[in-house]
Recover the amino acids of this structure.
């Protein structure tokens, strides 16, 4: 069990993926499940009568929500007679077998963050700290984006155990929808990897940081875009997604992946931004022509439909809660923590996170990798996702961007995050006594 309090961040090593033991939970049946339920009952009984209300409050305090499909039967059972105490037997009878393990871990405070309350509070404190950052400008080169409220600020989180948090600075921020813009890049890259495999994908696109701005007209030595996290590379990965299919089915396919990674909630499409950007896409067309001139596209791909798919994907709309679930799916090795659906293969996630770490923040990526040391991806709408492998996925929205096109508050939040939690990829070198003798 991990311990956590505001002054003592969790000491759990975070270098490896530790996915939820989903198979084990499903397999746990009969006597074993009853024993797990009995343990949970006894743990709760030590501090008072075990009522449905107390158990519900305990689950909520651990970040487990009422729409959680993993606890469907439990929530249904807890809705009845909230203040009538259970005895051990009725408690064990009312918990569905395949839900006992999660309930008992939550009761014990043994989910990935340890006690969730202090963890969430610390994250919210960092959010408020970052809200004091008021530098930067809203992106104006896409007219529709220029309408964004510069002061909006929201944060969502989802751990690999499916514990959720979200907060907004101003009224309505927490549920505000925004388009993903460049945060589509890791997803289109992941889809291309799933469809074609790493070897094929990387004959078309490199995996080296470009060191240049996100829409620079430049290719690598092999005349490929430098990586999938900048515009040229994402135009290329869009070209690789079922190029012979019609536009609607290609875009539906991408949206289904977003939906699945978001935990089953559909993402909408911001038509106004799509049209606005389509009329101001000279630079992106220039990139596409440049790549076509160098014979970069696969034979089946058409430049115009590729551009349409790319721009549509940039205009997929979401909110911080759904985006946090996408980040959590990556943190959890490709399995959405709440629905337990395998969205991406682990190998795919490894590749995606590697490039988010080295290239996810445009020409600020080296600085970000140095100071923050986490895979992240930003977009010019002001959104950003941060992945802490094996722990949590976080999503932010704050439209004011710094010089390199990253949300200023998101960057400040990231810096503070790794001061509070040992999550920089090399933090264990400093904090883990087992590494250096
Ligand atoms: N749609 C934007 C563009 O193509 C995406 C860029 C970004 O978010 N940095 O310019």
């Amino acid at each position: 069990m991990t311990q956590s309090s505001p002054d003592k961040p969790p000491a759990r090593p975070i270098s490896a993926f530790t996915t939820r033991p989903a198979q084990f939970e499903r397999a746990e049946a009969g006597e074993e499940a009853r024993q797990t339920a009995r343990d949970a009952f006894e743990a709760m009984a030590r501090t008072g009568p075990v009522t449905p209300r107390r158990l519900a409050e305990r689950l909520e305090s651990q970040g487990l929500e009422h729409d959680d499909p993993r606890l469907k039967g439990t929530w249904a059972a807890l809705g009845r007679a909230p203040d009538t105490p259970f005895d051990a037997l009725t408690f064990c009878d009312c918990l569905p077998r395949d839900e006992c393990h999660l309930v008992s871990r939550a009761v014990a405070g043994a989910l990935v963050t340890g006690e969730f309350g202090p963890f969430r509070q610390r994250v919210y404190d960092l959010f408020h700290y970052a809200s004091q950052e008021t530098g930067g400008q809203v992106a104006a080169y896409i007219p529709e984006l220029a309408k964004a409220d510069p002061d909006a600020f929201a944060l969502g989180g989802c751990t690999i155990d499916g514990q959720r948090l979200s907060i907004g600075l101003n009224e309505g921020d927490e549920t505000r929808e925004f388009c993903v813009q460049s945060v589509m890049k890791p997803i289109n890259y992941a889809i291309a990897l799933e469809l074609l495999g790493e070897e094929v994908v990387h004959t078309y696109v490199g995996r080296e940081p470009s060191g240049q701005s996100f829409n620079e007209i430049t290719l690598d030595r092999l005349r490929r875009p430098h990586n999938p996290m900048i515009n040229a590379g994402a135009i290329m990965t869009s070209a690789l997604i079922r190029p012979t299919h019609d536009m609607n089915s290609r875009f539906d396919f991408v949206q289904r992946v977003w939906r699945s990674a978001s935990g089953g909630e559909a993402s909408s499409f911001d038509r106004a931004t799509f049209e606005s950007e389509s009329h101001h896409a000279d630079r992106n067309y220039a990139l596409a022509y440049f790549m076509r001139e160098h014979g970069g596209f696969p034979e089946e791909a058409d430049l115009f439909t590729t551009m349409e798919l790319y721009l549509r994907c940039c205009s997929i709309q979401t909110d911080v809660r759904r985006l946090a679930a996408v980040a959590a799916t990556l943190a959890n090795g490709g399995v959405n923590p709440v629905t337990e659906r395998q969205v991406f293969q682990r190998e795919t996630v490894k590749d995606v996170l590697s490039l988010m770490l080295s290239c996810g923040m445009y020409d600020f990526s080296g600085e970000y990798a140095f100071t923050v040391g986490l895979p992240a991806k930003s977009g010019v709408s002001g959104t950003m996702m941060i992945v802490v492998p094996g722990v949590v996925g976080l999503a932010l929205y704050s439209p004011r961007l710094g010089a390199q096109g990253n949300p200023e508050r998101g960057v400040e939040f990231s810096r503070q995050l790794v001061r509070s939690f040992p999550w920089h990829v090399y933090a264990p070198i400093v904090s883990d006594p087992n590494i250096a003798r």
